[in-house]
Amino acid sequence: MNYIEQKTILIVENDPLATVIEKRILEKNDFKVICVQTGEEAVNQVAINEDINLVLMDINLGEGIDGTEASIIILQKRDIPIIFISSHTEREIVEKTEGITSYGYVVKNTGDIVLLVSIKMAFRLFEAKMQEKKKEEELRESELRVRAKMAAILLPEGDIGELELEDLIDISAFQSLMDSFYEIAKIGIGVIDLKGKVLVSKGWQDICTKFHRVHLSSAQNCFYSDTQLTLNCEHGSYKAYRCKNNLWDLSIPIIVGGKHLGNIIVGQFFYQNEIIDYQLFREQAKKYGFDEEEYLESLDKVPRVSQDTVEKVIIFYSKLAGIISNISYSNLKLARTLEEHKRSEQSLHQEQWRLQRIIESSNLGTWECNVQTGESKLSDRWAEIIGYTLDEISPVSIETWRKYAHPDDLVESDKIIQKHFNGETDYYECEYRMKHKDGSYVWVLGRGKVSSYDHTGKPIMMFGTHQDITERKLVEIEREILLRSTK
């Protein structure tokens, strides 16, 4: 089929002679044609007639709305190719169409070829646009599905129902396992999701692969058997049934997190003591147009299995279904745990970053130390308060503080810290002097808190801050001296 077959074009033209000419050209080239004379009629026709594929729009339509106005209204309601046609070539007329999504501008009386080529090109452009739009919509839908699946996998409140079986199992690993087990059991196996999609298969009989699943109607029977006859089977149980094409199958559900996501299908067999109704299969061959001789040959190849073997196979695959379910759910929970851990880490990093910015803006020196080992970590600002760089006072320990603290202040500060160690205070706070690099002393406000204790109740880790309060202390000392001098 080419681009112009079976297309309907709406001609919007108030010139009767032009209408006749254009209609004759289009009908001669196998278009269906509808003609109207006004912009209002054009808007109405496109709204009520979905068969219209393209609009050939004159610009000057006399009284009422003109062609450009009508086109704007049409495009607001429906995406359809519009070609403007006019006897005018003046700039101001052509410019009226520039802000409108159109597929061409044809000057009247330029011949059949120009008009037809313009229409063909418009259909090609519109089809390309629709294909691109379809791809964009499919991509958006795919993104939404992926997001929904990621949420179902990663978020604690995610709905497992958003997932499909293939999202949770290692298909290649299970295919390899099925390949190996088939060499022992010789019974066909399939892992099929609830939509009928075959994820794993091995040992399927010719009667299914070459006949039942090839013909449209019998394939619909297969789909029905795979999806409907396998419903309402509880975890840990199985269902034995004749498929819609009259072979035996066993269905064992795969349930993950309480959600039925698929089935292990064991089958395409007859029981050993079962009498096969050949007439039934001859009628099936006739019904679906199969070669009867080849069809019955494939029927004779279908395995005859003892009840004992079937029971052993059921036990194995029931356990396998449980393993699949447990592994899938464990993987799901692990993915959620890892994601939750990742989110917690991100949140912690953000909180640490925020706390660091707060500390930096407050001009505080920070420290942390192991009380039992003396190992310590000081910030650059801590060293800066007493006039050093951190490198200059490294290596640091709990003795670094005692080294620079004024000896007269250590006794009182030690008492305050010990009270905190004894659990008498939530944190400690004390003021003391520390020796500056230039030999002077600066006043420091120290605050700290134990963050962990050992099993005997002795402190292990603690952290805190140093704040330079020299300026405030000097003001307090000056005020005290002034008060004394006035007494």
Q: Please, could you describe this protein's structure?
A:
The protein is of the alpha/beta class. 49% of the residues lie in helices and 21% in strands. The chain contains 16 helices and 16 strands. The chain has helices at residues 16-28, 39-48, 67-77, 91-95, 112-154, 171-185, 206-212, 216-227, 278-288, 292-300, 307-362, 380-385, 390-393, 398-404, 407-421, 470-486, and strands at residues 8-12, 32-36, 52-58, 82-86, 105-107, 188-193, 198-202, 239-242, 248-256, 259-271, 304-305, 365-370, 376-378, 428-435, 441-453, 459-468. The strands form three sheets. Strands 6, 7, 8, 9, 10 and 11 form a six-stranded mixed β-sheet that branches. Strands 2-1-3-4-5 form a five-stranded parallel β-sheet, with helices on both faces. Strands 13-12-16-15-14 form a five-stranded antiparallel β-sheet, with helices on both faces. Helix 2 (39-48) runs parallel beside helix 3 (67-77). The radius of gyration is 42 Å and the shape is flat. Mean pLDDT is 84; it is low at 150-155.
